[in-house]
C-alpha cells in the first residue's frame, strides 16, 4: 500500500486552524493533515487582555481541539513544538506517540507539503506562557487579575493594540488606580488612518489614563517597598507597583532558518513570501507560509490570516492535482496576491475593544474613517464579555457549554 502523504501545518492558531478547515474535506485520498501545536487548547487571544482584568469568563478563551478532526478522521493533531524544518520533514522538540504516525513514537514527521503558520510571540498577558493545560492557562489569567487588583500604580509600556486595550480595561474597571501609558510615537494606531488616534485618545482620556507620547522605556529597576522605577528615553521616571509590557511581537521563524536562510528577514524575523505564499526560495515550492509570520503589508490580523490560508490551501490542492496527473503538462497556475503591494482594503478595518466601548476604523467611500463604538454597543446591547469567543468555538466544531468546560 502506498504510504500516506502528509500536509503538515506548523501552528494551530488562527492561520493554522483556518488552513485545516479549508483543506480537510478537500484533500484527495492518500493525503492527510498533521497539525503540530504545543498549546493544549486553541487560545482565543482576542480577549486575553480583558480577561487579565475582568474575571469569570477565562474558561471561554481556551477551546478544545476535539472538534477539529471528527472521530475516525485520518488527520492528526500532535502536541509538540517544531524545532527545525528540513527539506523532507519537521523535527519536534520532544518525542510524540501516536499509532497513526508512521513510527508510533517519533521526533520527526515527514511532509509532502508544509504550511508554516507559527505566528509571533507576545509577552504575557497578550499571550499565555503556561500552555500545557486549560487549567494552567486559566490560572495565568487569574494571576494577572490578582496582580492588577493589588497594584495602585500601573505602567503600561507600549501604545500598540495590546497596550491600548489593557490600559482601557484597567482604567475602566478600577478608576481609582493610576494608569500610565508610555508610547514611543506621537499618535496611536496610525496604520489605520489619521482619525483613530483621536478616538482612542478621547476614550483613554475619559477613563483618566495618563498618556505619555514620544518616549521609550529604557530601564525598569526594583526600588524600595516592592515598587519598580521605570525610566524613559527622555529621563521621565515613573514609580509603579506593576509594569505591563506590551511591546511588539517576535516572529517564530527560527525553525525555518536552516532550511532557507534567505527567506527569513534578518532584521525582523518575518518570512518573505512569493505572491503564491510559497517561501521566496525556488528550491522549496512545497513550503508555504501564512498568518502573522508572513512578511506582507497585510495588517497582522486573524482576518488576514484566514484569507492567506485559504489561498495557500487552494495552491496546495492545485499542486497535488498536478502531481497526481503529470500528463496534464505545463506549469501549474497558482493563485496569487502580491503580499507587498496588494493589501486588501478590508485589512485596514479594525474594531478595538477599549473597555466596554471601542475604537473602530473602516474604509468608507474610499476614505479611512474612525469612530467611537458606543452607539453600536447601545444598538446591539452589551456585547459578549468574551468578545466573540462563542463564534470561534463553533468554527472549531465544538459548542461553548459554560457548565461543562
Ligand atoms: C490583543 C490582540 C487582539 C487582537 N484582536 C484581533 C481581532 O479582534 N481581530 C483580528 O482579526 N485579529 C486580532 N488580533 C490579531 C490576531 O490575534 C493575529 O493576527 C493572529 O493571532 C495571527 O494568527 P496566526 O495563526 O498567524 O499566529 P498566532 O496566533 O501567533 O499563532 C501561532 C501558533 O503557532 C504555534 N507555534 C509557535 N511556534 C511553533 C513551533 N515552533 N511549532 C509548532 N507550533 C508553533 C503557537 O503556539 C500558536 O498557536 C489581535 C491581536 C492581539 C494581540
TrEMBL record:
Gene3D superfamilies: 3.50.50.100. Residues 6-308 form the FAD/NAD(P)-binding domain. This is FAD/NAD(P)-binding domain-containing protein. The lineage of its organism: Eukaryota, Fungi, Fungi incertae sedis, Chytridiomycota, Chytridiomycota incertae sedis. It comes from the Eukaryota. InterPro entries: FAD/NAD-bd_sf, FAD/NAD-binding_dom. It comes from Gonapodya prolifera (strain JEL478). GO terms for cellular component: cytoplasm. GO terms for molecular function: electron-transferring-flavoprotein dehydrogenase activity; flavin adenine dinucleotide binding.
Amino acid at each position: 500500500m502506498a504510504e500516506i502523504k502528509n500536509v503538515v501545518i506548523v501552528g494551530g492558531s488562527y492561520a493554522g486552524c483556518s488552513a485545516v478547515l479549508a483543506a480537510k474535506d478537500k484533500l484527495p485520498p492518500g493525503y492527510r493533515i498533521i497539525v503540530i501545536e504545543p498549546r493544549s487548547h486553541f487560545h482565543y487571544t482576542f480577549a486575553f487582555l480583558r480577561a487579565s482584568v475582568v474575571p469569570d469568563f477565562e474558561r471561554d478563551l481556551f477551546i478544545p481541539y476535539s472538534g477539529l478532526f471528527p472521530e475516525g478522521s485520518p488527520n492528526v493533531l500532535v502536541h509538540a513544538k517544531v524545532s527545525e524544518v528540513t527539506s523532507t520533514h519537521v523535527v519536534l522538540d520532544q518525542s510524540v506517540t501516536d499509532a497513526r504516525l508512521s513510527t508510533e513514537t517519533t521526533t520527526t514527521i515527514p511532509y509532502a507539503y508544509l504550511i508554516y503558520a507559527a505566528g509571533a510571540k507576545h509577552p504575557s498577558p497578550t499571550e499565555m506562557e503556561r500552555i500545557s493545560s486549560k487549567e494552567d492557562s486559566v490560572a495565568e489569567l487569574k494571576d494577572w487579575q490578582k496582580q492588577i487588583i493589588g497594584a495602585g500604580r500601573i505602567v503600561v509600556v507600549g501604545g500598540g493594540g495590546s497596550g491600548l486595550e489593557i490600559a482601557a480595561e484597567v482604567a475602566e474597571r478600577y478608576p481609582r488606580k493610576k494608569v500610565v501609558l508610555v508610547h514611543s510615537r506621537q499618535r496611536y494606531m496610525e496604520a489605520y488612518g489619521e482619525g483613530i488616534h483621536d478616538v482612542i485618545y478621547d476614550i483613554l482620556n475619559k477613563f483618566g489614563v495618563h498618556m505619555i507620547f514620544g518616549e521609550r522605556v529604557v530601564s525598569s529597576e526594583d526600588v524600595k517597598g516592592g515598587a519598580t522605577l521605570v525610566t524613559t528615553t527622555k529621563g521621565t521616571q515613573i514609580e509603579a507597583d506593576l509594569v505591563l509590557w506590551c511591546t511588539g511581537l517576535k516572529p517564530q521563524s527560527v525553525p525555518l532558518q536552516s532550511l532557507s536562510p534567505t527567506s527569513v528577514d534578518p532584521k525582523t524575523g518575518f518570512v518573505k513570501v512569493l505572491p503564491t505564499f510559497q517561501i521566496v526560495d525556488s528550491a522549496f515550492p512545497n513550503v508555504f507560509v501564512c498568518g502573522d509570520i508572513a512578511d506582507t503589508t497585510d495588517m497582522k490580523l486573524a482576518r488576514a490570516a484566514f484569507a492567506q490560508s485559504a489561498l495557500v490551501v487552494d495552491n496546495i490542492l492545485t499542486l497535488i492535482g498536478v502531481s497526481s496527473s503529470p500528463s496534464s503538462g505545463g506549469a501549474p497556475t497558482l493563485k496569487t496576491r502580491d503580499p507587498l503591494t496588494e493589501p486588501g482594503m478590508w485589512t485596514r478595518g479594525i474594531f478595538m475593544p477599549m473597555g466596554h466601548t471601542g475604537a473602530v476604523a473602516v474604509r468608507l467611500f474610499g476614505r479611512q474613517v474612525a469612530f467611537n463604538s458606543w452607539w453600536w454597543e447601545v444598538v446591539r446591547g452589551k456585547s459578549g464579555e468574551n468578545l466573540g469567543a462563542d463564534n470561534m468555538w463553533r468554527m472549531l466544531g465544538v459548542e461553548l457549554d459554560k457548565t461543562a468546560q
